[in-house]
Amino acid sequence: MEGFTQANLFELSRGAIHVTYSTTSILGGPIFNYRDNHMSRSFRGEEVRIQETEVGQLITVTLETIPDLRTVTFSLILPIVTVIPQSTGTRIGAPGITTTAPTTIAGPPPGPQQLYSIVRLRGTAQFIVS
User: How many CA atoms lie within 13 A of 63 on its CB side?
Assistant: First the structure.
């Protein structure tokens, strides 16, 4: 039986949201691409914040920062996915969370300091040699 390895390339989408996340690249660090109806952004290296949590790996990027208005981030919760190298990929589902945090000079307004929009992304996880 062939050896298994952890996936390092994730391609996920739902509706207008399309996400590609690679744990490694030729440049050495992670790459995260995000696209929806309003923007298309690419993030590299330290712009991609990764935390190991009990629910999986939490990958977060900052989509938008408007001083005195809001900061918008997108987070992806990914499970560890074991795959056969050089396979076409394993189908997975993962939650994507867009978080909007209002910002003002006067300090935080009353009410929740984060507003969430959650989407259930679907796609593939695979291992590619970089």
Answer: 21
Q: Look-up: residue for tokens 């996880």?
A: 125
Among 50, 75, 64, which Cα is nearest to 102's?
64
User: 20: which strand partners?
Assistant: 11, 33
Please state, in angstroms and rounded to a whole number, the distance separating the CA atoms of residues 40 and 89.
Answer: 24
Q: Cβ(118)–Cβ(93) under 8 Å?
A: no
Cα–Cα distance for residue pair 22/25, rounded to 1 Å: 7
CB 69 within 8 A of CB 106: no
Tokens representing 107 are 């300090």
Residue 1 has pLDDT above 50, yes or no: no
The pLDDT score that the predictor gives to residue 130 is 64
Write out the two tokens for 74. Answer: 């997108």
Mean pLDDT, residues 17-30 taken together? 88
User: What pTM, to 2 d.p., does this model score?
Assistant: 0.90
CA nearest neighbour of 63 among 87, 97, 90? 97
